[in-house]
């Protein structure tokens, strides 16, 4: 039962799946470099809020034994918003750039997860085409 689900998810050709996984580190490095070039002050401020939330959680919950649920939720709120922004940005990139049918492939969800890690950066780039340094060629024309 479980092996059938894995087979359906990864497809019929395990070698192609293995090749995709082997090429992932190079693609991941390219995405990291491209994202680092796009970082703006607003992105750093949003990430500082995420780090402040985690610091507040560590110091308040872990060190000072302040066990109020409201403070824990407030400390985790910036992280949740960061991840939601990244997931929305990833979905916009996947569906807008490749198409809705791309969600049928497992690689799309790896990319969406990667975009989720970049959070606000992903969402800002997905919503503002002026921030993207992407070459979009002209559509191919039919030969007459």
Describe the structure.
With 144 residues, this protein is mostly helical. It has 6 helices and no strands. The chain is extended.
Provide a short characterization of the protein structure:
The chain has 144 residues and is mainly α. The chain contains six helices and no strands.
**SSE arrangement, N to C:** HHHHHH
Backbone structural class:
mainly alpha
Summarize the amount of helix as a percent range.
over 70%
The average pLDDT is: 78
Strand content: under 5%
Q: Count all strands and give the number.
A: 0
**Largest sheet, strands/sense/barrel:** none
Question: What is the global morphology?
Answer: extended
Distance N terminus to C terminus? 52 Å
Low-confidence stretches: none
Please tally the helical runs, counting DSSP H or I stretches of 4 or more residues: 6
Taking Cα atoms only, what radius of gyration do you get, to the nearest Å? 20 Å
Q: Which labels suit this protein?
A:
144 residues, mainly alpha, 74% helix, 0% strand, extended
Write the layout of secondary structure elements.
Layout: H1 2-10, H2 14-37, H3 41-63, H4 69-98, H5 106-118, H6 120-127
């Amino acid at each position: 039962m479980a092996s059938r689900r894995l087979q359906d998810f990864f497809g019929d050709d395990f070698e192609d799946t293995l090749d995709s996984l082997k090429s992932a580190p190079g693609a991941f490095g390219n995405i990291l470099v491209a994202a680092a070039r796009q970082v703006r002050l607003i992105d750093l401020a949003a990430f500082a809020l995420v780090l402040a939330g985690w610091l507040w959680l560590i110091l308040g919950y872990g060190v000072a034994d302040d066990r109020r649920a409201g403070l824990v939720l407030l400390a985790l709120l910036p992280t949740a918003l960061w991840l939601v922004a990244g997931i929305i940005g990833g979905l916009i990139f996947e569906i807008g750039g490749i198409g809705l049918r791309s969600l049928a492939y497992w690689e799309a969800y790896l990319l969406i997860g990667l975009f989720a890690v970049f959070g606000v950066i992903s969402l800002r780039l997905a919503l503002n085409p002026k921030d993207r340094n992407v070459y979009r060629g002209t559509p191919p024309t039919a030969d007459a």
